[in-house]
């Protein structure tokens, strides 16, 4: 039975992906912050997939030592994993002089350092076995400057740049191991929006807004095909192509419009 480790697997995109892995008979392994949430999510998954094997570990992945602990736990308990999904992450929203420094440091640890460490640790083993897949969740915001999401966008640019560069390293090594960077547009139905305090931000109702289910479906197909980059949703894929030929000032205008608080909710 194949094994997948999904960080932040008990909600949003992580849970939607877990359903697809479960449908393919994977042993699901989650690491997230709250045991109760993982228990509830496991119960939910079992209503559709009664025989699914699920294990989980409570871990605050923003702590510097957590990646090594997760790696050791996996080695001791499951020996190895076939797929690693670096999904856990959150965002902050606001001008740089308004956002909380401590929260952003935690975000950098989770979105950048942990993604780097888990990729580094598990990729080495995958290369030794010449087998395995890594899916790293970046974001559409990784492609352009994003006012009010400067630090979050920078963390996701790191994830995309690292993953795409390693993709070409793996090509040079002629290994069967693959790495895929996932870049979703704004996702309407997850906890992200609330966590980032973006309740009334236009982008979640915008043309490119998507759902966790659509993101998971596109990601799952792309990862299995060993794609370098997965953009989610047809409309967003067309938008991203236009982004390449549109003058930067027009793109920037459109992004800034998307990142505004909706007019009717300003007060
Ligand atoms: N929503 C969007 O618009 C959007 C767009 C592009 C990319 N993304 C990216 O997609 C990924 C999934 O986000 P989502 O939209 O599905 O949001 P979500 O529902 O809030 O999921 C985030 C997951 O990360 C976990 N997590 C957060 N902090 C953690 C920590 N310190 N340690 C361990 N786990 C932690 C959460 O687990 P707990 O509940 O246990 O804390 C949760 O399961 C993130 O990397 C996000 O940046 C989101």
What does this protein structure show overall?
This protein is α/β, with parallel strands linked by helices and 267 residues long. The protein has a single domain, classed as Rossmann fold (3-Layer(aba) Sandwich). The chain is 49% helix and 13% strand. It is built from 9 helices and 7 strands, in the order βαβαβαβαβαβααβαα. The chain has a 7-stranded parallel β-sheet with strand order 3-2-1-4-5-6-7, sandwiched between helices. Strand 5, helix 5 and strand 6 form a beta-alpha-beta unit. Helix 1 packs across helix 7 and helix 3 runs parallel beside helix 4. It is globular and about 50 Å long. The model has no long low-confidence stretch (mean pLDDT 95).
Distinct ligands: NADP nicotinamide-adenine-dinucleotide phosphate
CATH topology (fold) name = Rossmann fold
What's the helix-strand series? Answer: EHEHEHEHEHEHHEHH
Tell me what the CATH architecture is. 3-Layer(aba) Sandwich
Task: Count every beta strand, where a strand is a DSSP E run of 2 or more residues.
Answer: 7
Question: Could you tell me the strand content as a percent range?
Answer: 5-15%
Looking at the structure, what is the overall shape?
A: globular
- What is the arithmetic mean of pLDDT? 95
Gyration radius from CA atoms, angstroms: 18 Å
Look at the structure and give the CATH class: Alpha Beta
Helix content estimate: 40-55%
**In which order are the strands of the major sheet placed?**
3-2-1-4-5-6-7
Gist of the model:
The chain is α/β, with parallel strands linked by helices and 267 residues long. The chain has nine helices and seven strands, in the order βαβαβαβαβαβααβαα.
């Amino acid at each position: 039975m194949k094994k997948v480790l999904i960080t932040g697997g008990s909600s949003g995109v992580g849970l939607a992906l877990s359903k697809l892995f479960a449908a393919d008979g994977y042993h699901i392994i989650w690491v997230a912050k709250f045991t109760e949430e993982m228990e509830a999510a496991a119960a939910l998954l079992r209503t559709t997939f009664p025989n699914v094997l699920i294990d989980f570990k409570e871990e605050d992945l923003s702590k510097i030592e957590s990646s090594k602990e997760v790696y050791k736990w996996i080695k001791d308990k499951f020996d190895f994993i076939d797929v690693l999904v670096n999904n856990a992450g959150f965002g902050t929203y606001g001008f740089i002089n308004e956002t909380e420094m401590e929260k952003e440091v935690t975000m950098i640890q989770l979105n950048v350092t942990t993604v780097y460490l888990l990729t580094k640790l598990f990729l080495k083993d995958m290369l030794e076995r010449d087998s395995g897949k890594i899916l790293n969740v970046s974001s559409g915001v990784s492609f352009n400057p994003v006012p009010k999401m400067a630090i979050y966008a920078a963390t996701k640019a790191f994830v995309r740049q690292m993953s795409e560069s390693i993709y070409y390293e793996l090509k040079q090594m002629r290994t069967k191991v693959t790495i895929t960077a996932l870049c979703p547009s704004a996702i309407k139905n997850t906890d992200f929006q609330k966590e980032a305090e973006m309740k009334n931000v236009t982008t979640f109702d915008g043309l490119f807004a998507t759902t966790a289910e659509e993101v998971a479906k596109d990601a799952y197909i792309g990862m299995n095909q060993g794609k370098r980059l997965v953009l989610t949703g047809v409309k967003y894929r067309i938008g991203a192509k236009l982004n390449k030929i549109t003058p930067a000032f027009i793109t920037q205008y459109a992004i800034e419009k998307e990142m505004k608080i909706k007019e009717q909710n300003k007060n």
